[in-house]
Amino acid sequence: MSTTTSWGIIGPGKIAKKFAAALGMVEGAALRAVASRDAARAAAFAKEYGAAISYSSYEDLVSEPGIDAQYMATSRGLRE
Questions:
Q1: Which runs of consecutive H residues, i.e. helices, occur in 1-80?
Q2: pTM for this structure?
Q3: Residue pLDDT, tens place only, 46-80
Q4: CB neighbour list of residue 37: distance below 8 Å, 6 or more residues apart
Q5: CA torsion 14→37→80→34, rounded to 10°?
Q6: What confidence tens digit (pLDDT) does each residue in 22-53 have?
Q7: How far apart (Å, rounded) are the C-alpha atoms in residues 17 and 65?
């Protein structure tokens, strides 16, 4: 039985790019969504790394029921 863990990335910066690239090499892991306060930046990152969903709100990604795990790649808190 194969299980896939769906990931979300909060904050599509330099470290997030490295994480997304590495995640693509992990069996059973899939990048499903990315969130940025800049909608265009989130969409571009999602397209580049194959995520199905992009958000302009960190809270929307955290609330997404299809995400099993989130990687916070920003030093800014969710409430800033």
A1: 14-23, 39-49, 58-63
A2: 0.89
A3: 999 999 999 999 999 999 999 999 999 987 655 55
A4: 56, 57, 58
A5: -60
A6: 999 999 999 999 999 999 999 999 999 999 99
A7: 23
Q: Which one-letter amino acid corresponds to residue 12?
A: P
Distance CA 68, CA 66 (A): 6
- CATH code for residues 5-71: 3.40.50.720
Nearest-angstrom CA–CA distance, 5 and 27:
9
Tokens matching residue 42: 């989130």
Give the pLDDT score at 78: 56
Q: At what angle do helices 39-49 and 14-23 cross, to 10 degrees?
A: 30
